[in-house]
Amino acid sequence: xxxxxxxxPAAGLASYSEVTKDERALRRFLHGLPGVDQVGAEAxxxxxxxxxxxxxxxxxxxxxxxxxxxxxxxxxxxxxxxVRALAAKALRPDPSDPSCPSVAAVCVYGDMVAxxxxxxxxAVNVAAVATAFPSGRAALDIKLADTRDAVEAGADExxxxxxxxxxxAGRYQQVFDEIVAVKEACQxxxxxHAHLKVIFETGELQTYDNVRRVSWLAMLAGADFIxxxxxxxxxxxxxxxxxxxLEAVRDFREATGVQIGVKPAGGxxxxxxxxxxxxxxxxxxxxxxxxxxxxxxxxSTLLNDLLMxxxxxxxxxxxxxDYFTLD
Length: 327
Description:
Helix 10 (208-221) links the parallel strand 5 and strand 6. An eight-stranded parallel sheet has the order 7-6-5-4-3-2-1-8. The chain is 47% helix and 10% strand. 46% of the residues are buried. Helix 10 packs across helix 11. By secondary structure, the protein is α/β, with parallel strands linked by helices. The protein is globular. The protein has 13 helices and eight strands. It has one domain: Aldolase class I (TIM Barrel), CATH 3.20.20.
């Protein structure tokens, strides 16, 4: 792979056109990627997780982490009222402190997009899970209809799931073609498109090598973000898996000139956890990714701990978990 980014991103991607033309070429490319040193990846992730930051940097990190949250509710018992309340919290996470930033997005099922949009307007992104979430097991026409319905309802972002069974069976072209088709379904009549996040469910992918392969597959197919998990399978996001994905987006930009975002989701519950991820982003991918445009946290409970830690830093008092609304 090239070691420096080409001046023309389109030319960089075009150089991979032969790779994605047929199953054999795609398989050769993906299995030709450098293998992941499991011990090394886990050791580096653990070492980065021990880094400490000073108070002023912590204040900045907490606000950045809040701005990176995709505040999420994906339950069968979700009601319009619950979703609207969550959307109001996304806009003003701490109503007592107007300096507290809004989150990046609210993530819901497609049928709740309009409810969120009625509260947040264009101030916060609305993300919808699609493509037979969380299993990814449905006919392609159903997946595409699911996506189009969410986009028509006003979704700014689509979080699709890949068919892990197809990927693990080695049907890479099928997975690639589905991502391409879903990306096309994200198009709006005005020519713009909802950003596409591709969920791997890394807890089911068995090896870090598979995580690296699926990261490249998704990026070549047009993903705007690559995402670890649905939050429905354990283990969900982990530091070593996210490290492998951050290496992939870094290497992809060096090879093509195209920058892709990363979203760990599931199991990130505390400010301490979030800061570990921010340190890793900076050390592995670089500070270009330290923005909500390129890094997100998929979480339902993380926001409250970030708010509690923020209040402690600004007031000197630690507010209990009941001080903020439960999500």
